[in-house]
């Protein structure tokens, strides 16, 4: 009886560990793909860093606070990565428009464009909580 129980215990942990390794490997592989250079010779992460660095002087304390507030629904573990991606998109928009500083409109548009489609439901909920009208940005969803 005890040997049968022990075998099931070992089998359970094998399945759990293989599952956890598969999940971790999936996310590591996705991150690995972002490091590969594209046709222009720069990777997705390189472009994010480029736009963040170039637009750093355009950020005001108010715009930084708004970005921090918008990313609060993201789990703590993934928040820095999400912030980097969103800030990169916001910086790209601001630089393309030759803005003098990052405005509310840049932040909302960049936030929507940088957020995956599957998370737009949570994004809308957060914007509703903050009493931000999404009607002007409906075409971006």
Please, what is the average pLDDT? 84
* Beta-strand proportion: under 5%
The H/E string reads: HHHHHH
Given the C-alpha coordinates, what overall shape results?
elongated
Low-confidence stretches: none
Spatial extent as radius of gyration: 20 Å
| Count of β-strands | 0
Profile the largest sheet.
none
Explain what this protein looks like in three dimensions.
This is DUF2621 domain-containing protein. It comes from Bhargavaea ullalensis. Keywords: Membrane, Transmembrane, Transmembrane helix. The chain crosses the membrane at residues 6-29. The protein is mostly helical. The chain contains six helices and no strands. The model has no long low-confidence stretch (mean pLDDT 84).
